[in-house]
């Protein structure tokens, strides 16, 4: 390459650099963006139905055995059921927790915890994700 070509190349680069430095940069931005549509599904955990309580034993002077049965929840991922006893005096006790596939539990209540000794029972569905159903409708009353 000759000296003249080198000088012309250098001059061309200098002129290009000077012109490029005087051009203002510009950019246009939108303040909105198109987002993909999303939906969130909600599920209600179904309570067991048909809860029944049957006095299994009342011959002992202190204890009353009650068998509670129910129809299983129709919800998915069930891990078990929680059974609660309600007394006429307003006290509530969790009397049993069962595993998956169980639809009955026999529980023993103490008749000497004070009068009255009339109970009703409810069942709640438990799931593996930690969600629970509302309590079932109560069983009929059981008295010893």
Automatic annotation (TrEMBL):
| Pfam families listed in its UniProt record | fn3
User: Fibronectin type-III domain: from which residue to which, for each copy?
Assistant: 47-144
UniProt GO BP: polysaccharide catabolic process
Keywords assigned by UniProt? Carbohydrate metabolism, Glycosidase, Hydrolase, Polysaccharide degradation, Signal
PROSITE patterns per UniProt = FN3
Molecular-function GO terms, alphabetical: hydrolase activity, acting on glycosyl bonds
- State the signal peptide span: 1-27
Q: Which InterPro entries match?
A: FN3_dom (IPR003961), FN3_sf (IPR036116), Ig-like_fold (IPR013783)
Q: What is the protein name stated in its UniProt record?
A: Fibronectin type-III domain-containing protein
């Amino acid at each position: 390459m000759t000296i003249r070509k080198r000088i012309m190349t250098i001059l061309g680069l200098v002129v290009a650099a000077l012109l490029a430095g005087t051009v203002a940069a510009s950019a246009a931005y939108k303040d909105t963006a198109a987002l993909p549509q999303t939906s969130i599904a909600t599920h209600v955990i179904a309570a067991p139905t048909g809860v029944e309580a049957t006095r299994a034993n009342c011959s002992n002077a202190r204890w009353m055995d009650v068998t509670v049965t129910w129809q299983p929840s129709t919800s998915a991922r069930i891990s078990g059921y929680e059974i609660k006893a309600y007394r006429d005096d307003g006290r509530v006790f969790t009397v049993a927790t069962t595993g998956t596939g169980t639809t009955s539990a026999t529980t023993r209540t103490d008749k000497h915890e004070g009068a009255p000794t009339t109970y009703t029972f409810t069942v709640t569905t438990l799931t593996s994700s930690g969600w629970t159903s509302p309590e079932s409708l109560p069983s009929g009353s059981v008295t010893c």
